[in-house]
Design a protein that fits this description.
With 321 residues, the protein is α/β, with parallel strands linked by helices. Helix content is 35%, strand content 14%. The protein has one domain: 3-Layer(aba) Sandwich (Rossmann fold). A seven-stranded mixed β-sheet has the order 3-2-1-4-5-7-6. Residues 262-285 have a biased composition (Basic and acidic residues).
Length: 321
């Protein structure tokens, strides 16, 4: 077992009951030889092998046998809760670098909650936007999650495809940690024609694999908690292992709440969920922002004060009107 797999497996107790790993592809964390685990992926095994034929990074012989393909014989994509229900309820579900790809995050979490037994664990490995090729990308929001859920998105939206392709950078985790910033303009992975080609595919209803959502440890905690407050999430955040220096991913354990809980019990359990993390938020700076502070001249300061005075005067006029 490699060091990364060991870290993920040791996040919580996974020794009881059956589990489900989502999208293991050619490198499952939970091996069938060691665990009572089923695999679910977008395509059946033979179609995954054909899809990645010729890709030297994904040997076809290593692709894990898919127990539950999301794509049915007629080509339609089934909900996760339907595709993998045969072995439910699961004691745990593991998803490595999956949550950022799902078109409708709220429905995806609800599907997993449906498959899990009460108090079951959802274990996540998540790319930290600050140290990945998403480093220059605007942070995604709960409002965007609500919009995707309202639209019942089955594929990444035009917004997601554009933001993903347009902001993808060649910056490495080591460069991001060291604040060596090539700048987005000089490090884009894709030119505008390719970006817009992807957008046109999304408009035509085709699936364009994208990072639909961006996370860092603190925002994941905040967003899961806010979805819970809205009554749209059956999980609390139990544990977060922050991104290690010069690495690009962090780990989290979400705990499924009991189905028969009262409103009072719900409030009590949610209060026990994680609210903060020692994620060094003070060192986080949006990469578009210069690393060093700046000074304001006396002339600029007087100009700013005149503008503020004008705004205050305009507000007083509006209030009188």
């Amino acid at each position: 077992m490699d060091e990364r797999s060991r870290r993920i497996i040791e996040l919580t107790d996974l020794d009881h009951g059956p589990g489900l790993e989502i999208a293991p592809l050619h490198n499952p964390i939970m091996r069938k030889s060691d665990w009572d685990v089923s695999y679910v992926d977008i395509l059946p095994t033979e179609e995954l092998v054909a899809h990645y034929a010729g890709d030297p990074n994904i040997p076809g012989d290593d692709i894990a046998p898919v127990d539950f393909p999301l794509t049915g014989p007629d080509g339609t994509i089934r909900p996760l809760s339907e595709a993998a229900k045969a072995n439910a309820p699961y004691s745990w579900v593991l998803a490595s670098h999956v949550i950022e790809h799902v078109p409708d995050l709220i429905t995806w979490l609800d599907d997993i909650a449906t498959l899990l037994r009460d108090d079951g664990a959802l274990v996540l490995a998540v790319p930290d936007t600050r140290y990945s090729f998403d480093a220059y990308r605007p942070q995604t929001t709960v409002g965007q999650m609500l919009q995707a859920h309202h639209q019942q998105d089955l594929i990444p939206s035009v917004r997601a495809v554009y933001d993903y392709l347009r902001s993808a950078s060649t910056i490495t985790a080591a460069e991001a940690w060291a604040d060596k910033r090539p700048g987005l303009a000089g490090s884009r992975q894709h030119g505008l024609p390719l970006v817009m080609a992807g957008v046109e595919q999304a408009k035509a209803g085709r699936y364009v694999d994208s990072h639909v959502w961006t996370f860092r440890p603190l925002t994941l905690i905040q967003q899961i908690n806010e979805l819970g407050e809205l009554g749209l999430c059956e999980f609390i955040v139990e544990k977060v292992q922050n991104t290690r220096p010069n690495e690009l991913e962090f780990y989290a354990v979400l705990r499924r709440l009991p189905r028969d809980r009262s409103p009072e019990r719900d409030k009590e359990l949610r209060a026990k969920g994680k609210k903060h993390t020692n994620d060094s938020p003070d060192r986080f700076r949006t990469l578009q922002t210069p690393a060093k502070g700046f000074t304001v001249s006396d002339r600029e300061r007087r100009l700013i004060e005149r503008k503020r005075a004008a705004v205050r005067a305009a507000r007083r006029v509006l209030r009188r009107g």
